[in-house]
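Late entry, evening session. Most of the bench is empty. Finally got around to the prediction I had been postponing all week. Sequence below, unchanged from the version circulated by S.P.
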Amino acid sequence: MAATASMEDYLECIYQLIEEKGYARVSDIADTLEVHPSSVTKMVQKLDKSEYLVYEKYRGLVLTAKGNKIGKRLVYRHELLEEFLHMIGVDDTYIYRDVEGIEHHLSWDAIDRIGDLVQYFNEDKSRLETLQEHHKTTE
């Protein structure tokens, strides 16, 4: 089963919590995603059934290799899109909301091309400066 946008949000959150704290509890996930713990439990059970993680009630959860791989990729996608939007001059106050709005609607091919573009600008800072100067002249 392919992960839905909601499943991706949970996998991304779980992956980040495990990276930061070494574990991810239902309460931590609920706090981070601003949802009820009962919603987290339902989704965690769904993710368990889809083999993205192993969940034992009252014992915690562990990402499977499949879940870990996808979680890592989802975090990369999120960070890449934040960097890209910052690079092209999107106001910082909008970046997180914009990334949340678009990340599930782009193909991985589009993400790869955005990655190429970010790399292109990072390889030669004068390219980025030229883009930023162009942005200033078109405001």
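Two things to note before I forget:
Helices lie at 5-21, 26-33, 37-49, 65-87, 92-102, 108-123, 125-137.
Residues 12 and 73 are 8 Å apart (CA to CA).
Will write this up properly tomorrow.
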